[in-house]
Amino acid sequence: MVEWIVFVLGASICLAGATGVISARNPVHAALSLVGTLFGVAVLFVAQNAEFLAAVQVIVYAGAIVVMFLFVIMLLGVDRNDDLELEPLGGHRLAAVVAGGALFLGLAAVLWVGRITGKPEANAPADPNIANVRQLGELIFTDYLWAFEITSILLVIGVVGAVSLARHRREAFIDGDHPGDEIPEPEVAS
What we know:
It is a single chain. This protein has six helices and no strands. α3 (about 50-75) runs parallel beside α6. The longest helix is centred in the last third of the chain and has 28 residues, at about 145-170. By secondary structure, the chain is mainly alpha-helical. Among the domains are: about 1-80, NADH-ubiquinone/plastoquinone oxidoreductase chain 6, subunit NuoJ (Four Helix Bundle (Hemerythrin (Met), subunit A), Up-down Bundle), CATH 1.20.120.1200; about 130-175.
């Protein structure tokens, strides 16, 4: 019963945070909602006796990655006043809905096939002599090394792209029309 309560609590935190990510108008609020989602995932990891993954989830993702997202948001100067209704290329929202529906159908099909065949999910046999952290480290740096490296390359590409976008925006203001030109002079009390 306690496991079920912890699962429902973690899943509720994840759903509330994910809803905040997609519904927040302010990008900073969306990034902070992402922190809530990542904490919910950490709760689910703890419920599965994967304490190391929960700690890594909080430290790496909720800490470093979200800080990087906030850095990029601040660097780009994304503001609430930006027009988010205008799509540069038509059909992005429709494509996102179609991709989300296809992903949902694929997940439902996998779950349905598991119920039909009656085969349990493939779990690695637990060796009580080897720690969970050691198994994870061996898997990451042997079987999943390329996925690990590609993920790090994608993160670097994201940061370089954000810096490049920020540089282009800064160059656009060199000619004039700075946003700070409309700021009125401070009044002096007499």
